[in-house]
Write a structure and sequence with these properties.
The chain has about 170 residues and is mostly helical. The chain contains seven helices and no strands. The radius of gyration is 25 Å and the shape is globular.
Length: about 170
């Protein structure tokens, strides 16, 4: 199994890390020796079929014709949570969320876990649902901070626990 820490060194660059391509202000002009005659409009339309505008797509939707398993509503909501946390921490997001570190919110993880325990002990399923959501938020929040610091991604975190569960259950997998 690959070490998660070593895989972070091979991370693909973020969009902010890639310098914009140099784009000239004007199109290059052909040499004077090349005569430019306008093509008849009907010749152009016959040679180049019109390209339809792309239809709006869901980021999580499979490519057309791809064999896929149905995406669960939970997977879609989880991806939505990941996107919300990323947006809150991004420029133009929430200043409070953006300034948080692992250390500054560490106590929240413990506090939310105790609140979930309380709901279990009370037998309060409505509160348990809310408190487990708060615990999940803490996990995703910490994973977002780690991703921003190029430590590990949420995908690596989930892959790690998936692998651990499979490894610990050879009688099932």
């Amino acid at each position: 199994m690959e070490n998660i820490a070593s895989s972070s060194a091979r991370r693909s660059p973020q969009a902010a890390d890639i310098p914009p391509a140099a784009v000239p202000d004007t199109a290059p002009t052909p040499p004077a020796s090349v005569p430019l005659a306008p093509a008849p409009a009907d010749a152009l339309s016959a040679a180049v079929p019109p390209v339809p505008a792309p239809a709006p797509t869901d980021v999580l939707a499979p490519a057309p014709g791809a064999a896929t398993e149905p995406v669960s509503p939970a997977a879609l909501r989880f991806a939505e949570l990941e996107a919300i946390v990323a947006r809150l921490r991004a420029p133009g997001g929430c200043p409070w969320d953006a300034e948080q570190t692992h250390a500054s919110i560490a106590h929240n993880l413990v506090e939310e876990a105790y609140e979930a325990l309380d709901a279990i002990e009370q037998g309060d399923n409505e509160s348990l649902c809310e408190e487990l959501g708060d615990v999940l938020l803490q996990v995703v929040f910490h994973a977002q901070i780690a991703n921003e610091n190029n430590n590990f991604s949420l995908a690596e975190l989930v892959a790690g626990i998936n692998n651990k569960l499979i490894r610990r259950h050879p009688h099932v997998f």
